[in-house]
Design brief:
The chain has 158 residues and is mainly α. It has 4 helices and no strands. Helix 1 runs parallel beside helix 4. The protein is rod-shaped, with a radius of gyration of 24 Å.
Length: 158
């Protein structure tokens, strides 16, 4: 089966739309993971502070502290790994979009007349921009700092 030029363009446009939507979906997932983890860490901190008001001493306090530390540390580690994976996969989507843009000659002035649809300076910048994103790193720092505070509070108060 041979595709016409217009069919090929339609396929490329659909693929580009799919890749852009996937990039946005991955960013939304990153944000949700961040929001869920920070909310849970805040709730854990509140629970620990509430437990600090008790008058009964916990039996086997060290064991409880170790378990609480693991219950905070493991999910935090997994969330950070998932955010990193989503961020890296988003770069792959951006590279696919750049290849499609190249196939569509979106930066080629001579292809579309006097001016290309996009400025030449944008060519090849989408994936680089995705790699330079600071938000995943900021999320790692915030989640890590919150986890450190919760774990420190576990050991100081419980």
């Amino acid at each position: 089966m041979e595709l016409s030029e217009s069919d090929k363009v339609a396929v490329l446009l659909n693929l580009q739309d799919m890749q852009v939507k996937e990039m946005h979906r991955r960013e939304e997932t990153e944000q949700k993971l961040f929001e869920w983890s920070t909310s849970l860490l805040l709730a854990a901190f509140a629970a620990i502070v509430a437990l600090s008001q008790r008058t009964v001493v916990l039996p086997q306090a060290t064991f409880v502290k170790v378990i609480a530390t693991v219950m905070v540390g493991v999910p935090v580690y997994l969330v950070i790994v998932k955010i990193k994976e989503r961020s890296g996969a988003s770069v792959g989507n951006a590279e696919a979009v750049e290849r499609i843009q190249s196939l569509l000659h979106l930066f080629d002035d001579s292809y579309y007349g006097t001016h290309s649809p996009y400025p030449q300076e944008w060519a090849g910048q989408l994936a680089k921009g995705r790699l330079k994103r600071k938000s995943p790193i900021q999320k790692f720092v915030i989640i890590g700092l919150m986890a450190f505070c919760v774990i420190s509070t576990i050991w100081a108060i419980l």
